[in-house]
Design a protein that fits this description.
Layout: E1 23-28, H1 33-48, E2 52-57, H2 95-109, H3 115-124, E3 128-132, H4 133-138, E4 152-154, H5 156-162, E5 167-170
Parallel strand pairs: 1-2, 1-5, 2-3, 3-4
Length: about 170
């Protein structure tokens, strides 16, 4: 079988220099407090390394950029075995409020900003924020409903085109 692929193999570089033109595309699909931070932290780290960074908010990830919800994301232990707590406790009244407050306190103790401030920091560092057209339509949201620094509501195809050649992360 003959390989007709003319694209060169991608070989990781482990030196201290960032290759020119490097891009990172992060798809943020979840809107719970514990799932918001991985994408934001990775975006911030990439920007600190000089990597062009794009975040695409889709499905529940829209809560991260919705003006009504972005400052009040929740954390629930239900269905999350990493809490190392009996799952039955997660359904008790007040558990989501308690676990959310505990996680927010732990994050604040590390001097990590809350989601709205983190988004502001990412944009100030040159990061790009994009909202998913299908998710916006499903939730009957328009640009005015979203964090002001979201550049546009675009289709998944448009995002793929904008981030051509990027490393993709789906969170």
């Amino acid at each position: 079988m003959t390989n007709t692929d003319t694209n060169p193999a991608i070989v990781p570089q482990f030196d201290n220099e960032t290759p020119a033109g490097r891009k990172l595309a992060i798809i943020c699909s979840k809107g719970s407090l514990d799932m918001a931070y991985p994408g934001l932290i990775l975006a911030n780290a990439a920007l600190g390394e000089g990597v062009e960074t794009h975040l695409f908010f889709t499905f529940w990830g829209f809560d991260m950029i919705n003006k009504k919800t972005m400052g009040d994301l929740k954390f629930t232990m239900l269905g999350n075995p990493a809490t190392h707590m009996p799952q039955g406790l997660g359904g008790l009244p007040g558990m989501t409020s308690m676990t959310t407050a505990k996680l927010k306190k732990s994050i604040a103790e590390l001097d990590v900003p809350e989601v709205p401030e983190f988004l502001e920091q990412i944009v100030a560092s040159g990061g790009h924020l994009w909202a998913c057209r299908m998710s916006a339509d499903m939730n009957h949201l328009v640009e005015e409903d979203l964090y002001d620094e979201v550049e546009a509501i675009i289709s998944a195809s448009d995002f793929i085109e904008k981030t051509e050649g990027a490393q993709m992360l789906f969170i």
